[in-house]
Design goal:
The complex is a heterodimer of chains A (609) and B (337). In chain A, α9 runs antiparallel to α10. Chain A has a two-stranded antiparallel ribbon with strand order 1-2. Chain A has 609 residues and is mainly alpha-helical. In chain A, 57% of the residues lie in helices and 4% in strands. With 337 residues, chain B is mainly α. Chain B has three domains: 39 residues, no CATH class; 115 residues, no CATH class; 154 residues, no CATH class. In chain B, 50% of the residues lie in helices and 10% in strands. Chain B is built from 14 helices and nine strands. In chain B, the strands form four sheets. In chain B, strands 1-2 form a two-stranded antiparallel sheet. The radius of gyration of chain B is 26 Å and the shape is globular. The chains are: A mainly alpha (609), B mainly alpha (337). At the A-B interface, α1, α2, α3, α6 and α7 of A face α1, β2, α3, α11 and β7 of B.
């Protein structure tokens, strides 16, 4: 049982770490432009090259291309009904759902307010989903590379379009082909057909039509293997099917589950080491890598401990009644006694942990492990239903999104970590009364301001809209679970949007569906718009501000390494960084954690109904 | 500026060609040429040579002769995968699990070891007392308003039954409207709790259930009637019975058999769950084939063992079997049930 529970997460961490070393070397080699392209690829690259750019030009190009992404994405989804590869005749998504989905995919979030199997044709899956999955992942990657070059002190940060090309063609494409091949062999469909109608083995088991004929089972297929692989490698997370990597076509076996989980880890892992290699500070990046690994291990252990090693508390016995004195101005004596009745357990064998919302083929701890990793690396795919996690286990994915730097998304995770590095060094500098330095450059007021702005966007974009929606019908009519868990559902949705993650508590009613849907979720439109805006701001502000910060810092004169300089490749630095992340994170998010998952855990179970 | 817009369009063009045309095309060609079974959805062929489903997608089985898959929040609709999204703290989860358990659980020890609990639930229900107070159904509706409302909305017949009742009890409805001025024209679901309260007073020890009668011409007709036994009583009131009998020693049911999967389409159950169903399946086939149950039981047990697999050969998970494949094998071996 111990091996069954812990071997999978250990194997995943080990494999991703081992792959990160050679892969980071390869990525640094590519991004430094040391390769010699095939003539045809070289020709394409020349078409894209607009010459070296300074940080403003580079950022400008990034933003201009973002606008192109928005227009193209909106167009593809809007013309879906009239395009080929739509044999099921799927209509058009509701406009606010398109707005939300387009931002969601261009920002690498993939928060899906639609269901792929119900609402998208194969045309949209390929030209909207797959395209965005490649391209949006490359954007964050390029932003990190630009920051690295700025730190090197270069006035010119390279060329955005060439960088995008390098990432797409030399980094993502070959790896995506390898992983897609594995998924295909294991059973992911790869066809341009939309669905099969089969008559079930037991006739009429699906029910009968009005004419008394047996209903067939309609099985949706499509180019699943191709989408699955880049979905995970690009830490996108938007499933071909509504239930994402839990769906047997996206994730057919225990082996694919391992590779799917590994696929979302390798680039975020490798990018941290690439940062060190490109700066010539490999030991520094190893320290950061270690801090991130420790944090990730903590979230995995927490999630597995509470979800796999504990039964679902909704089904177990609570043997004794508990009475609490709740402070209340209205009650006599200012104390309102509240009694939770004893509850008898249901006869269910739960030695495999909480199985509600889990699939059987992946392995004992696969769901809990995946749930923690998917938010650490801001992927947002799921292979188990996060809404049904045990209350405290759900804290692990939430913490991953709140900190947003435990490896984090492609590039942006490392960028977020840099903000913590700057702030950590700044705090340490204040403590010893020395001017803080990073990479031999003095950190000034302007750099710290930019770092703090970029860092505070995230909590603001989570806490403010969560509060707004929790106080109004927008939120209260969307939640599907009563009590503290309903609050968690809203909190999770905005955390996911702001972290550009895309995971969700799926019970939340945020889906409008196609145009002409007669029974959409009542509050779908406010959710579409609010999360759309959150994703937009939380994506581009934390990219632009750090590039500016890096450019200002890089342009400064290097000061000589002295006796009082804080070494950035030491254990002390690692502990400082770890402490900064944990303390800042706790200050920002402990109150909502207490209102959501912790309250659910300590409160009455079962509740409501 | 213009220069960057032009380059953006070049990038758009190249990336669409590479990511949306070349990349899928390569994989599609490999899939269709070398792995057509997987690439087209792993379709299984039935005894008559027609596809009967996918080996990766669960499908429902209702007959006792077949193993049953895990319950599905998507109703096994392979065009709309879905999980239950029920939080552990949500009573709806406990209620759903209890309803699944009620008709199937058995005593583990004591004089009635191995016998179903369900008859005891029915006779306890007939006494119409819960925690010392009369009228179980009224208490059930009071405790779980949303379940009472869900019952009204579950079937148009249920709604019509409540509407009929409302017509016969204008005084009760008028009082309800007076107490709830915000809802001057209540629908059937609004009146659900009130309906069950009066129903329980008028029909002690009874619950409104669908009953099917034979009518003239060989047809059948389903009506809602007060009943004291049956599947509704066994499932809906099992949890309340359990609260009064917390120490009754009952066999545990494997967890995966009463929980919904994440996709709603999980084709597997644990080997433990399959063995839990083995008794039912083999005696059903034995009755059908009029042969010795122990022989059939042994044969089907072998089929289960042969089909059992575990992720990474058991290193990271328990053994499971594919319900669709096992049932297809039974269908081919024994014919249509």
């Amino acid at each position: 049982m111990i091996i069954q529970t812990w071997l999978l997460p250990v194997a995943l961490m080990a494999a991703a770490t081992i792959i990160a070393f050679p892969l980071s070397k390869y990525l640094a080699w590519i991004m430094d432009g040391k390769y010699r392209p095939l003539p045809v690829l070289g020709w394409c690259e020349k078409r894209l090259d607009s010459g070296p750019q300074d940080w403003k030009q580079y950022t400008g190009s990034l933003l201009i291309f973002a606008i192109v992404m928005f227009i193209f994405g909106y167009l593809v989804l809007a013309i879906q009904p009239w395009m080929p590869l739509n044999t099921d005749g799927k209509g058009m998504l509701f406009p606010t759902a398109i707005f939300n989905s387009v931002i969601s995919f261009m920002t690498n979030t993939n928060l899906q307010h639609y269901s792929g199997d119900q609402h998208l044709s194969n045309f949209s899956q390929i030209f909207f989903c797959i395209w965005n999955m490649f391209v949006s992942a490359a954007v964050g990657f390029c932003a990190l590379v630009a920051i690295i070059r700025a730190f090197r002190g270069a006035a010119k940060l390279g060329n955005y379009f060439v960088d995008m090309w390098r990432v797409l063609v030399y980094a993502f494409l070959p790896v995506a082909l390898i992983f897609a091949f594995i998924f295909l062999v294991q059973g992911s469909p790869m066809t341009l057909q939309s669905s099969h109608n089969v008559s079930t083995l037991e006739p009429a088991a699906m029910g009968t039509t009005d004419k008394g004929e047996a209903k067939p089972q309609n099985i949706v297929v499509g180019p699943v293997a191709a989408l699955e692989s880049i979905k995970m490698l690009g830490t996108n997370g938007g499933g071909f099917f509504g239930m994402n990597s839990a769906h047997p076509f996206e994730n057919p076996t225990g082996l694919t589950n391992f590779f799917i989980t590994l696929a979302m880890m390798i680039f975020p892992f490798a990018l941290v080491l690439m940062y060190g290699r490109m700066l010539g500070r490999f030991r520094h990046s190893l320290v950061i890598f270690t801090v991130m690994s420790v944090l990730m291990a903590c979230t995995i252990v927490w999630s597995v401990y509470w979800d796999t090693l504990h039964p679902n508390p909704g089904l177990t016995a609570h043997r004794t009644a508990r009475t609490y004195q709740i402070p209340s101005a209205a009650a006599k004596g200012g104390q309102l006694p509240v009694t939770l009745q004893a509850v008898a357990g249901l006869p269910v064998d739960q030695y495999l942990g909480n199985l509600e919302g889990k699939e059987m083929r992946f392995g004992t701890s696969a769901g809990a492990t995946f749930d923690a990793i998917t938010t650490d690396v801001t992927c947002g795919a799921v292979n188990a239903e996060q809404d049904s996690l045990n209350p405290l286990a759900a804290l692990a994915p939430m913490v991953g999104m709140w900190l947003n730097c435990i490896f984090g998304g492609k590039g942006v995770g490392m960028i977020n970590m840099l903000l913590y590095v700057i702030i950590g060094i700044f705090i340490a500098g204040q403590m010893v009364g020395r001017t803080p330095e990073y990479l031999g450059k003095k950190i000034g007021a302007r750099e710290v301001k930019l770092a703090v702005i970029a860092l505070l966007v995230h909590p603001f974009m989570i806490l403010f809209p969560t509060g707004l929606f929790a106080a109004t019908a927008w939120g209260l009519q969307a939640i599907s679970n009563p009590g503290a868990h309903g609050f968690s559902q809203m909190l999770f949705q905005f955390s996911s949007a702001s972290a550009n993650n895309g995971a969700a508590f799926d019970g939340l009613g945020v889906s409008y569906g196609l145009v002409g849907n007669t029974s959409p979720s009542p509050m779908a439109i406010p959710w579409d718009i609010a999360t759309g805006l959150v994703m937009l701001f939380s994506r581009y502000l934390p990219i632009v501000a750090p590039i500016a910060m890096a450019a200002y810092l890089g342009a400064k004169k290097a000061s000589p390494f002295g006796l009082g300089t804080l070494r950035d490749d030491s254990l002390t630095f690692g502990i400082l960084l770890f402490g900064t992340i944990v303390i800042v994170g706790a200050l920002l998010f402990l109150p909502v954690a207490a209102l959501g998952p912790v309250a659910e855990h300590l409160g009455p179970i079962p509740f409501g109904g | 500026m213009l220069r960057y817009i032009a380059k953006s369009f070049w990038l758009l063009f190249f990336s669409v060609v590479i990511c949306c045309v070349l990349y899928p095309l390569v994989l599609w060609s490999i899939g269709q040429a070398a792995f057509p079974f997987q690439a087209n959805g792993s379709l299984l062929t039935g005894p008559d040579g027609k596809p009967v489903g996918s080996r990766l997608i669960a499908q429902p089985f209702t007959k006792d002769e077949y193993f049953q898959p895990r319950p599905s929040a998507a109703s096994y609709n392979a065009a709309a995968s879905a999980s239950s999204s029920l939080a552990a703290s949500n009573y709806a989860l406990r209620d759903r699990v209890a309803r699944t358990l009620g008709p199937i659980v058995k005593y583990r020890s004591g004089a009635r070891a191995g016998q179903l609990v369900a008859p005891d639930v029915e006779s306890w229900f007939g006494q119409d007392k819960f925690q010392g107070n009369p009228h179980i159904v009224a208490q059930w509706a009071d405790l779980h308003n949303s379940l009472a409302q869900a019952w009204v909305n579950a079937d148009p017949k249920n709604g019509a039954y409540v509407d009929d009742w409302a017509k016969k009890h204008p005084a009760n409805v008028a009082k309800w409207i007076k107490d709830n001025p915000g809802t001057p024209q209540p629908k059937a679901a609004d009146l659900a709790v009130l309906f069950f309260e009066t129903f329980s007073g008028e029909n002690p020890g009874k619950f409104p259930s669908a009953v099917t009668h034979a009518v003239a011409g060989g047809k059948t007709e389903t009506t809602i009637e007060p009943v004291g036994v049956g599947a509704d009583i066994q499932s809906i009131f099992f949890d309340m019975w359990r609260q009064e009998h917390p120490d009754a020693d009952i066999q545990d049911v494997p967890g995966d058999l009463v929980t919904t999967s994440a996709s709603g389409l999980d084709p597997h159950i644990t080997l433990q769950s399959a063995e839990f169903q083995l008794e039912r399946v083999s005696s059903a086939w034995a009755a059908k084939k009029k042969t010795d149950a122990s022989v059939i039981r042994k044969d089907i047990g072998k089929i289960l063992q042969r089909n059992a697999a575990a992720p990474w050969e058991g290193l990271i998970g328990e053994k499971f079997v594919n319900v669709v494949e096992v049932n297809l094998e039974l269908r081919k071996l024994y014919g249509a049930p």
